[in-house]
Amino acid sequence: HAADKTTRLYMSHFKTLEKVYEDFSKQGLRVLATGYRRTNAEKLSHIENLLSEITFAGFIAFHDPLRIGVKDTIREAQRAGIKVVMITGDNKYTASAVARELDLVDHHKIIEGRELLDMDDKTLQREVSNISVFARIVPNDKLRIVQAFQANGEVVAMTGDGVNDAPALKKADIGVALG
Q1: In the chain, which ranges are continuous DSSP H helix?
Q2: Largest Cα–Cα distance of the chain, in whole Å?
Q3: DSSP-derived 3-state class of residue 83
Q4: Can you give the pLDDT at residue 47?
Q5: 53 versus 77: which is more confidently predicted?
Q6: How far is it, in rounded angstroms, from Cα 122 to Cα 6?
Q7: How far out from the chain centre does Cα 73 lie?
Q8: pLDDT reading at 107 higher than 60
Q9: Residue 20 CB coordination number (10 Å)
Q10: pLDDT confidence of residue 43
Q11: Three-class SS of residue 107?
Q12: Do 158 and 151 touch, CB atoms closer than 8 A?
């Protein structure tokens, strides 16, 4: 069976797979890598044994459509003089594609959470106004972003749809819980 055939992955394979992942992401798709491992009931009791020797099965790429009315709402906010910033857990390629779809990307830049780790609070405060999209962001990053805007004298309104948004929603001058 061709379906039963597996091939050992080497670094050259990872570079190719990374390019496929990146290409899907640049199209605005969410991408999940899938894999499996054959085992027996005896090994199930040792989870650490299950996390090695996983066989890569492929990618699942899907489009997560924008909520209805979001683009119009953003356009109205911008016409009213409100700076709209996107903060997402998506990678920078997916975030960039979504931002283009929403007309959020202009001369401002996109940064990822790992870049925030390298910024102290003063640097973030200085740079935050030049950033329109924050990608691969975790809850603590959201809080730091809100605080940086506030430290610059900005009134911050934040929307969020998950429990991980609660600290930043509470800290924002206006917190809007969605869903």
Answers
A1: 11-26, 47-50, 70-79, 92-101, 113-117, 121-127, 139-151, 166-171
A2: 65
A3: coil
A4: 65
A5: 77
A6: 51
A7: 21
A8: no
A9: 13
A10: 60
A11: coil
A12: no
**What's 44's DSSP letter?**
G
Tokens 């990307």 map to which residue?
A: 105
Tell how far CA 3 is from the center of its chain.
33
- The token duo for 1 is 């069976």
CB-based burial, 104-130: b 16+ in 10 Å, e otherwise: bbeeeebbbbebbeebeeeebbeebee
Centre a 10 Å sphere on the Cβ of residue 34 and count the other Cβ atoms it contains.
Answer: 11
Fill in the DSSP letter of residue 64.
Answer: -
Read off φ and ψ for residue 83, nearest 5 degrees: -80, 120
Q: How buried is 6 (Cβ within 10 angstroms: 0-12 exposed, 13-18 middle, 19+ buried)?
A: exposed
Q: What are phi and psi of 65, to 5 degrees?
A: -65, 155
131-135 and 109-112: which strand pairing?
parallel
CA 74 to chain centre: 19
Find out whether 150 and 175 touch, Cβ atoms under 8 Å: no
Residue with tokens 């329109």: 132
Over range 92-116, report the average pLDDT.
85
Q: Which amino acid, one-letter code, is at 67? A: R
Mean pLDDT (whole number) for 53-58: 84
